[in-house]
Amino acid sequence: MRITAEGLAWSVAGKSVLAGVDLDVAPGETVGLIGPNGSGKSTLLRCLAGLRTPTSGSVAYDKEPIRLWSARRTARHVAFVEQAADTDSDLRVEDVVTLGRTPFGDRWRGFSARDRAVVAAALARLGLTELRERPWKALSGGERQRAHIARALAQQPYAILLDEPTNHLDVKHQLELLGLLAATDQTVLVALHDLSLAARYCDRLLLLHGGRLVAEGPPRDVLTPRLLAEVFEVDAVTGPDPLGHLAVAYRGVAAPPVPGDAVAPAAGGPPAPATEDPVVLASPTSATDHPTPELVDSPTPKET
């Protein structure tokens, strides 16, 4: 499912949070959303998910404006995982994941055998089968995050939007989750803070700064020393890690920017390829990527 936004803007109390954002995410693409804190990543995701009404501009899925969809239709097509979603503490893990089947359930007959099978598969995919009976209040932060992601997978959506889903996850579960997202046929837009993980698992990156989209394109074209200094205010180099993956290494905080030398918004597509020579962080070695799992089932057939 293709996600598009045109001239997207959102403001609150007279303060602009997003301004003039245009984006186009192709079906099946995994796109990373990066930028410093306060750059507008969470607001953009909530507008794309239909949870926040833009001040101006539009959001569409396969050219259908999301503002025209019912809540049920939206939930059947788009799953959104927040940074820290509140959930009733009396629920069990399995109950939370089963919420993902609500858009498909029958109010009179409840959930079907297929619904229960989809939930079981989502629990297994996130390594939560043995925790399915555990009360929510007994879970760690990482376990709760994995349960919310399993709930999103149980929706079997066409598009998955995630706001910093690796927060609270240990290294193993970060790698498993991002490998899973990169391998799926669903359209994925994920906000990430770890730039090296974003470079490894995302097809493209969108860089937000001050509520504007300032760069987009393949990770190698976006994660340049110049943009890292101007947007993130860090002195960094990029190059292959020992396994050959693009990675970012930090020398420290960047020198203050020259007045008037602000980053311009992206216009008309991705920026020109970086002119800096790539810096090799370590000599590449022969290695095979760890195989990545697939998401739960395929999406429920689209409504007509």
TrEMBL record:
Region (Disordered): 259-304
Pfam assignment, any one: ABC_tran
Ranges for domain ABC transporter: 3-235
SUPFAM superfamilies given in the database record: P-loop containing nucleoside triphosphate hydrolases (SSF52540)
Entry annotated with the keyword Translocase: no
Keywords: ATP-binding, Nucleotide-binding, Transport
GO terms assigned for molecular function: ATP binding; ATP hydrolysis activity
Protein name from the UniProt record: Histidinol phosphatase
The organism of origin for this protein: Streptomyces alboflavus
